[in-house]
Automatic annotation (TrEMBL), chain A:
This is UPF0210 protein C8E03_101581. Belongs to the UPF0210 family. InterPro entries: UPF0210. Coiled coil: none annotated. Homodimer. HAMAP family: UPF0210 (MF_01221). It comes from the Bacteria.
TrEMBL record, chain B:
Belongs to the UPF0237 family. Pfam families: ACT_6 (PF13740). This is UPF0237 protein C8E03_101582. CDD domains: ACT_1ZPV. Residues 5-79 form the ACT domain. HAMAP family: UPF0237.
Length: 454, 90
């Protein structure tokens, strides 16, 4: 039987070390809503979401109460809207009506974010894909809870550079539309290489076309738990260090598995995956950067950071993979800047630069995340940053992403406040040399040689 | 049979166990196991209980125990045992 020591350990993780289930994300397929009549399409989408997800928040809250584990977010992901709207949408404004419908449905069922205002264009863009991408600035500016993502490349297809170029412009346009409030719409927009179909985390969650009609995906989080565990093994060997991370990741993930199974049972929706992630928040002690410091760095960004992060990411996966029957999503350590107090401190101290962050993305689970850059940055420069990140994903056969916020009217040295879980960020300098001629080439970068495995 | 774990943590005072046990008995909740220690004046107790015969819902029980905890100045938490089993048993 369970003993007092074990009970206390679990409760200490929850109460003092910020262990929580970061999100229960209900993936909903909208493929059966497709209609050539726009009004009918909107009606069907609203109905499908509000019916399928009507108990999501209630069940999340029940689980939270019964197990004593916070379930921070309940969210929804839907099939990429560029596919769903293709038959009905002829203009940008047609697509925006769908965004508004999604927003309304999210409010109705009580979820704080809904992902899937997305297009998958890793090889080419259909007319509908391009229209959706061009509608993103307006869609995000006129809705509150809708999140958008675009998959620009993959190891199998190469990188769609036409879409990369377009996204540089779209990102600036999105920033411009909400310039009065520090361009915050850009927080809800992310571009990917090798985007996973079952990611429960926002802003990049969408319900892939290979998925079932509805599915429960769960993202756990516990940077504080790992940090506390590591503080007890200071000065020990790498073997001890790695074992400690693995054991902790196992325990954290088991909670995710339990919550996913319970949610699946109570909602009568199949269980998809647990995303084994260390997702930080701005709360003190809930930081991935603090783990890196605990491993032995003065600040995140110091020499050794990439190695420490690689080790951390790998051990989290090794520990977590046995704890859950299905793992997926992004799985690994997230390194957002604004959402992690330790990362913010590192930037302010001058220890962490955009270039070092890029190196770190080679070994972590996502990419350049929640980074504020000057609003005066050129569209081609943003496309260049995106292309670099996509190339890292393509060559290393991993997911990479870019979620940067060009803050219109602000420059290096200033700070931008995103509020709540999104935190705040110092604006980081961007390399000023031009990549215009590179970005303005037409077409796509071919798939790498190691993608030909047939 | 799902069991519930009740933990009581706080400054030691007279009658903590009595108060909690009286509540449990009054609501047909059977105590299966109790362990308790005092570390530096801090009272620390864990109970494993069977609440399946109780007419109270889990939510009501948690709220009412929390209230009792407030009255005597300790923190009382109720959780299904699964979260601990999952985390500490393979």
């Amino acid at each position: 039987m369970i003993n007092m020591f074990e009970v206390n350990e679990t409760n200490k993780m929850i109460e003092q070390e910020n262990l929580d289930v970061r999100t229960i994300t209900l993936g909903i397929s909208l493929l059966d809503c497709i209609d050539s009549d726009l009004e009918e399409l909107n009606r069907k989408i609203y109905e499908k979401i509000t019916t399928t997800a009507k108990d999501l928040v209630k069940v999340g809250n029940e689980i939270e109460k019964e197990y004593g584990i916070p379930v921070v977010n309940k969210r929804i992901s839907v099939t990429p809207i560029s596919l769903i709207g293709a038959a009905a949408c002829k203009t940008i404004d047609d697509f925006v009506t769908i965004a508004k419908t999604l927003d309304k449905a999210a409010v109705e069922v009580g979820v704080n974010l809904l992902g899937g205002y997305s297009a998958l264009v890793s090889k080419g863009m259909t007319a509908s894909d391009e229209l959706l991408i061009r509608s993103i600035p307006k869609a995000l500016a006129t809705t509150e809870r809708v999140c958008s993502s675009v998959n620009l490349g993959s190891t199998k297809t190469g990188i769609n550079m036409d879409a990369v170029r377009l996204m540089g412009e779209i990102l600036l346009e999105t920033a411009e539309m909400t310039k009065e409030i520090d361009s915050v719409s850009c927080m809800k927009l992310v571009v990917f290489c090798n985007a996973p179909d079952d990611n429960p985390f926002m802003a990049g969650a969408f319900h892939g076309v290979t998925e079932a009609d509805a599915i429960i995906n769960v993202g756990v989080s516990g940077p504080g738990v790992v940090k506390t565990a590591l503080s007890k093994v200071r000065g020990e060997s790498f073997e001890v260090l790695c074992e400690t991370i693995k054991r902790t990741a196992f325990k954290v993930t088991r909670v995710g598995q339990l919550v996913a199974q319970e949610a699946s049972k109570r909602l009568s929706v199949p269980f998809g995956i647990v995303d084994l992630s260390l997702a930080p928040t701005p709360a003190i002690g809930d930081s991935v950067a603090d783990i890196l410091c605990e491993i032995g760095l003065e600040y995140a960004g110091a020499p050794g950071t990439t190695a420490a992060l690689a080790l951390l990411n790998d051990q989290v996966k090794k520990g977590g993979v046995m704890a859950s029957s299905y793992v997926g999503g992004l799985s690994g350590a997230f390194i957002p800047v604004s959402e992690d107090q330790g990362m913010i401190d590192a930037v302010l101290a001058g220890a962490l630069t955009l270039e070092k962050l890029e190196a770190m993305t080679c070994v972590c689970s996502v990419g350049l995340d929640m980074i504020a850059i000057p609003g005066s940055t050129k569209a081609t420069t943003i496309s260049g940053i995106i292309a670099d990140e996509m190339a890292i994903g393509m060559i290393n056969q991993k997911t990479t992403a870019v979620r940067i916020i060009p803050v219109i009217g602000k420059d290096v040295g200033e700070t931008v406040e995103f509020g709540g879980l999104f935190g705040y960020a110092p604006i980081m300098p961007v390399n000023q040399f031009s990549c215009d001629a590179f970005v303005n080439r037409k077409g796509r970068i071919p798939a790498p040689i190691h993608s030909f495995k047939n | 049979m799902k069991k519930t774990i009740i933990t009581v943590v706080g400054k030691d005072t007279v009658g903590i166990i009595a108060k909690v046990c009286t509540y449990l008995a009054g609501n047909d909740i059977n105590i299966l196991d109790i362990s308790q220690t005092i570390v530096q004046d801090y009272f620390n107790m864990m109970m494993i209980v069977d609440a399946n015969k109780s007419s109270k819902s889990f939510g009501d029980m948690a709220v009412e125990l929390d209230k009792i905890g407030e009255e005597i100045g300790v923190k009382i938490t109720c959780q299904h045992e699964d979260i601990f089993n999952k985390m500490h048993r393979i």
